C-alpha cells in the first residue's frame, strides 16, 4: 500500500525502532471476526465454526460470516473487527442503565451494548447521518433489541432532551481512520498532515456536548480507530484538563498497549488508556479511554424530565394489538397501554422512563411492533426478530429452501393444517419473519429493501 509521505515521516519519528514493523503490518491482511448475539434463543446454535475464540470476549470469534446467511438475517451473528469488539466490553453496559452511543452507525458497538443490557434499561443509539442512521436502525432490529431508541441527531440537539441523563456515554468518534488503512486502502487518500488536527477539533465539539449529557458519577468511553496522538492522548489530556474526570484503568490483554503519556500532556494516568497497534495486535488500529465523572449530584440542576406521553392509542387499537399478540404467549404479550406509543399508524414499544423525544429526529422511538390498517393490526418484521419464546400454535416451521424463497420475496406454498392467520416462521430453530397463512399459501411480508438471494450451504466457512 502506498502511504502518504507525511504519514511515514510522522510515525517514523513517533515510533522509532518500531516504525518498520508498524508500516509492514499495514500491508498485511486483516483478521476478520464476528460476534454471536446472546439476545437470541439458543444463540450458539449456528453453522459457523466457533473454534477460534477471542480471549477478551465471550461471544466474539475469528472468522467470516455472510450477510446472506440465515444466521445473519435473523441477527444471530454480527460481523465486526476484533479491536472494535473491545470498546463495548470496556463500556460494560449493564441491564437497567441509561446508555448513550453518540456516534453509533452502522452499529457494531451499539448492538453489542444492547446485547449486554439484556433488554433492560434504555439505550439511545444516535447517528447524525441519515443514511447511516437508517442502517443503524436496521441492525438494531435485526438483533432483536427491545429497549433501543435510534435517533438521527446532532449531539447539541440531543442535549436539549437528555441533559445529565445518562449513566454511560460511548463516543466512538469520527476520526482520521488511520487504523482502517489496512482494511480500506482508499482511506489513505483522505489523509493529509492536518487531518488529525481537524478531526480533533470536531471530537472536542462532540465531547463538549457529550459531557452535558453525562450524569454526575457517570462514565464516558472514548474511542477512535486512528493511531494519531492528536485524536487520542491529546484529546484525553484536554478532557482531564477541562472536566472533573478520572481515567479508569482498562485491562490489557496480549498485544494491547498502554496509551502514551508523552504523546499527551504527560499525565501518567494516560497509561490507563489502551492502544491497539496493528503491529502488536491482530485487529485494526483502535484507541480506548474510560473516564469516571467525579462531580457530585448537586453540581447540576437536573430538571425533572417530562413523563413520556402515550400518543393517542385508542382502547380499540389496544384491543387489536392484544388480539394479535396474546395467542403468541410471548414476552411481549402482556404490555401495558403505557408501554405503547403510536406514531402515525405505527405502534412502538417505548422504553420506560424515557423523556419525551418528540422534538428530536428519530428512526425508531423504540421497538416497531406493527401498523394499524383500517380494522386490523399488521405485525412488523422487527417484531418477528425480537420474539424469543412463543407458543408452538403460532409458529410454522419451514425448510431452509423455503426460507430462501421467503427472503427472496416469494410466497411459500404450504400444506400446513393450521387455520388462516399470522404465524411466526421458523427454520433451524430461528424465527425469521411473520407470514400470513391464507388457504395453503404463506404470504410474504419481507420488507422489499431487505430481500436478498441467500448463500448456498457450501458457502459456509
Ligand atoms: C467511527 S464511526 C462510528 C462507528 C460505530 N460506533 C460502530 O461501531 O459501528 C463515527 C460516526 O460518527 C458520525 N459523525 C460524523 N460527524 C459527527 C458529528 N459532528 N457528531 C456526531 N457524530 C458524527 C459519523 O457519521 C460516523 O457514523
Automatic annotation (TrEMBL):
Entry annotated with the keyword Methyltransferase: yes
GO terms for biological process, alphabetical: RNA methylation; RNA processing
GO molecular function: RNA binding; RNA methyltransferase activity; S-adenosylmethionine-dependent methyltransferase activity
Binding of S-adenosyl-L-methionine, residues: 103-109, 127, 172
Pfam families, per database record: Methyltr_RsmB-F, Methyltr_RsmF_N, Methyltranf_PUA, RsmF_methylt_CI
Positions of the catalytic residues: 225 (nucleophile)
Sequence ranges assigned to domain SAM-dependent MTase RsmB/NOP-type in this UniProt record: 1-294
Alphabetical keyword list: Cytoplasm, Methyltransferase, RNA-binding, S-adenosyl-L-methionine, Transferase
InterPro entries cross-referenced by the UniProt entry: Methyltr_RsmF_N (IPR031341), MeTrfase_RsmB-F_NOP2_cat (IPR049560), MeTrfase_RsmB-F_NOP2_dom (IPR001678), Nol1_Nop2_Fmu_2 (IPR027391), Nop2p (IPR011023), RCMT (IPR023267), RsmF_methylt_CI (IPR031340), SAM-dependent_MTases_sf (IPR029063)
Key word Methyltransferase present: yes
Protein family per UniProt: Belongs to the class I-like SAM-binding methyltransferase superfamily. RsmB/NOP family.
PANTHER family the UniProt entry points to: 28S RRNA (CYTOSINE(4447)-C(5))-METHYLTRANSFERASE-RELATED (PTHR22807:SF30), NOP2 YEAST -RELATED NOL1/NOP2/FMU SUN DOMAIN-CONTAINING (PTHR22807)
NCBIfam families: nop2p (TIGR00446)
Name of the protein this chain belongs to: Trna and rrna cytosine-c5-methylase
Species, as recorded: Ligilactobacillus hayakitensis DSM 18933 = JCM 14209
Amino acid at each position: 500500500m502506498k502511504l502518504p509521505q507525511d504519514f511515514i515521516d510522522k510515525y517514523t519519528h513517533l515510533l522509532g525502532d518500531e516504525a518498520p514493523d508498524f508500516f509492514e503490518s499495514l500491508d498485511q491482511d486483516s483478521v476478520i471476526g464476528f460476534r454471536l448475539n446472546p439476545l437470541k434463543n439458543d444463540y450458539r446454535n449456528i453453522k459457523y465454526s466457533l473454534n477460534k475464540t477471542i480471549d477478551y470476549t465471550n461471544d466474539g470469534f475469528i472468522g467470516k460470516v455472510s450477510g446472506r446467511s440465515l444466521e445473519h438475517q435473523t441477527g444471530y451473528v454480527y460481523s465486526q473487527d476484533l479491536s472494535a469488539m473491545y470498546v463495548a466490553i470496556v463500556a460494560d453496559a449493564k441491564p437497567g442503565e441509561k446508555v448513550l452511543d453518540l456516534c453509533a452507525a452502522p452499529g457494531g458497538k451499539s448492538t453489542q451494548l444492547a446485547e449486554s443490557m439484556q433488554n433492560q434499561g434504555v439505550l439511545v443509539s444516535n447517528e447524525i447521518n441519515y443514511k447511516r442512521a437508517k442502517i443503524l436502525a436496521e441492525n438494531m432490529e435485526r438483533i432483536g433489541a427491545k429497549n433501543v431508541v435510534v435517533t438521527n441527531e446532532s449531539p447539541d440537539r440531543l442535549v436539549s432532551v437528555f441533559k445529565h441523563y445518562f449513566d454511560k456515554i460511548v463516543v466512538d468518534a469520527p476520526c482520521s481512520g488511520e487504523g482502517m488503512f489496512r482494511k480500506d486502502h482508499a482511506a489513505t487518500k483522505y489523509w493529509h498532515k492536518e487531518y488529525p488536527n481537524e478531526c480533533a477539533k470536531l471530537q472536542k465539539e462532540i465531547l463538549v456536548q457529550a459531557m452535558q449529557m453525562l450524569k454526575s458519577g457517570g462514565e464516558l468511553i472514548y474511542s477512535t480507530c486512528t493511531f494519531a496522538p492528536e485524536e487520542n492522548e491529546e484529546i484525553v489530556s484536554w478532557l482531564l484538563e477541562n472536566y472533573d474526570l478520572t481515567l479508569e484503568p482498562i485491562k490489557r490483554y496480549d498485544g494491547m498497549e498502554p496509551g502514551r503519556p508523552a504523546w499527551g500532556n504527560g499525565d501518567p494516568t494516560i497509561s490507563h488508556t489502551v492502544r491497539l497497534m496493528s503491529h502488536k495486535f491482530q485487529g485494526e488500529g483502535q484507541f480506548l479511554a474510560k473516564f469516571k465523572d467525579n462531580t457530585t449530584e448537586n453540581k447540576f440542576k437536573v430538571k425533572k424530565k417530562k413523563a413520556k406521553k402515550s400518543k393517542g392509542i385508542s382502547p380499540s387499537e389496544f384491543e387489536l394489538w392484544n388480539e394479535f399478540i396474546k395467542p403468541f404467549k410471548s414476552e411481549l404479550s402482556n404490555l401495558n397501554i403505557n408501554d405503547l406509543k403510536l406514531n402515525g399508524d405505527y405502534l412502538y414499544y417505548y422504553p420506560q422512563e424515557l423523556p419525551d423525544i418528540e422534538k428530536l429526529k428519530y428512526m425508531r422511538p423504540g421497538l416497531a411492533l406493527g401498523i394499524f390498517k383500517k380494522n386490523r393490526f399488521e405485525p412488523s418484521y422487527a417484531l418477528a426478530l425480537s420474539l424469543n419464546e412463543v407458543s408452538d400454535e403460532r409458529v410454522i416451521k419451514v425448510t431452509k429452501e423455503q426460507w430462501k424463497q421467503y427472503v427472496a420475496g416469494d410466497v411459500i406454498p404450504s400444506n400446513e393444517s393450521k387455520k388462516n392467520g399470522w404465524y411466526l416462521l421458523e427454520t433451524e430453530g430461528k424465527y425469521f419473519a411473520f407470514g400470513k397463512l391464507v388457504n395453503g399459501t404463506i404470504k410474504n411480508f419481507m420488507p422489499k429493501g431487505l430481500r436478498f438471494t441467500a448463500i448456498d450451504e457450501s458457502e459456509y466457512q
